[in-house]
User: Fold this.
Amino acid sequence: MIKVMKLGTFFWILLAMQLQAQQVQWASKVVSYSSDLGGKQFGIKQILGKPNAFPQCESSPTAWMPKSALSGAQVLEVAFEKEQTVQQIAIFENLNSGCVKVISVAGSDNKYKEVWRWTTDWRNQPFKRNLKTDRSYYFNRKRRKVEPAPPVDGFPGIHRVLLVEPVANVKSVRIKFDFSILPGQKQIDAIGISDSNIPIEAEINSISNNLIESAPELLVNNCYSFTCTEDGNQLFFTRDLEGKQVVYSSNFTKLSEVSQVNVCSANLSYNYLQGGNGNLFLHGGATYSASQGETGWNLLEYKNGNFQNLGKLRIAAYSNYGETADATITSDGKIVILAVESDLTQGGSDLYLARRKDDGTYTYLENLGKQLNTAADELAPFLCADNKTLLFASNGFSGYGGMDIFVSKRLDDTFLNWSEPKNLGNLVNSDANEVGAAITAKNQLLVNKQTEDGSAIFRLKLKNSDFEDK
Assistant:
């Protein structure tokens, strides 16, 4: 019995050492490719780095989508940061997997060696295109025709190749696809290599579940955007009332009692409060003139249970492609962080900041960069009371499906350098959409979740508000 225990202990120690010793690299450079859709969304550079669309496996602009989704050969060549021994190659196919035909590897000399080839099975017939070609579409345009793919979504998969003999000093990988094998659009999320036969997986970078001390508790149903006072006593949320949006207030101790808040927008379609840092709030939804630096936001101060309008939030050269925006503000009002889509976007809606000037207006928008922004959408920023912890919603990082809530920490006083975002985990996020969050001084985490009946606010108890597992 003692010998068995010793052998078992030795096995687990050996396995742990093997896991720690595994060297995994993700593609860091595109060397060559056959086609892509161009632009930042679905572009070829979306395959670089670790997976973003896995493991949720939904169609995502953070994955590469070839222009010729139904054609035969497509070739992709990627390089890695440094040479290493390779025993495993993993290709993360986000839509309609199973189209990899040939894999070759090369060192710094760029001399490729074939290491794997798909063997044709006479029982598997390639998908045949039967779409009619619209010749007028082609001849009336000065660009190549993009043939639409049949509406077949899903069927994700990780194509892992385990080499019989490891190959030393691998610097780049060349992959040949045959996208005529399967119908539907194709997306490639990431390409990884390893010196081990332990399967390469897509991992969600999340906080520890130990930081969540309670299950989600339903607070308010049928509501939209929300915020709260820093002390955690008062909750503000928006509901529809007879065709217009109305802001309501409720005390956390008497959530069944709600009252209308005396803030209104000339635009009946949008009327909501955000921010909630210190005494400062942002009232959104007003119509605005971008040529005059207007944003549709008003700055409010909350004192003695009432809101005082401090005037319009004006940002130089403000630009927003959408009808609405999300925003948060530092407790001193010097920095505003917004979620909008503009000319500087990384893809969809991005997080930007604007700095207050001496005259009370704000500088032009500055993109918060690729650490926080993806080719997908980043929404609903909420800056916590420490002015360092930022919560936001995104569907551009590995998650549990739809929009998830993430947290990032400010690293310096520029407000442009942030830590790698962490998912708030499966006790907070789900396969539905989590589209907003806030934290109170009582370590209460409030989350806006989309439900079958619309949208609702849930409350969870946090171990601490800095999201560190101490």
Notes: DSSP finds two helices and 27 strands in the chain.
